[in-house]
Write a structure and sequence with these properties.
Structural class: mainly beta
Distance between the termini: 40 Å
Largest sheet: 7 strands, mixed
Number of strands: 11
Strand content: over 45%
Order of helices and strands: EEEEEEEEEEE
């Protein structure tokens, strides 16, 4: 079955960097677009970044120029490099693809 497992979240100071990853299994990873979403307490889930099967990327305006999505098809892994982090980036970050969701990894940015 499709499985998406996020890792790499944690606590970081404002201005710092963090990379979260998503290990995918149960489907042909290289054939599918993949996305990162985030959800903060009391807020709606927000699309952060998306990458097509051939590597075309798109970003939410709020993270453009600071976050970078990438994929390693040989390792069936999705990454999100987050730089210049702000307290408002604090959220649960979830990986999505092929109609499935991971459980998420918490990112907390302290001011």
């Amino acid at each position: 079955q499709v499985q998406l497992v996020e890792s790499g979240g944690g606590l970081v100071q404002a201005g710092g960097s963090l990379r979260v990853s998503c290990a995918a299994s149960g489907f042909t990873f290289s054939s599918y677009a993949m996305s990162w979403y985030r959800q903060a307490p009391g807020k709606e889930r927000e699309l952060v970044a998306k990458i097509s099967s051939v590597g075309v990327t798109s970003y939410a305006d709020s993270v453009k120029g600071r976050f970078f999505i990438s994929r390693d098809n040989a390792k069936n892994t999705l990454h999100l490099q987050m730089n210049s982090l702000k307290p408002e980036d604090t959220a649960m970050y979830l990986c999505a693809g092929r109609g499935s969701w991971g459980q998420g990894t918490q990112v907390t940015v302290s001011s």
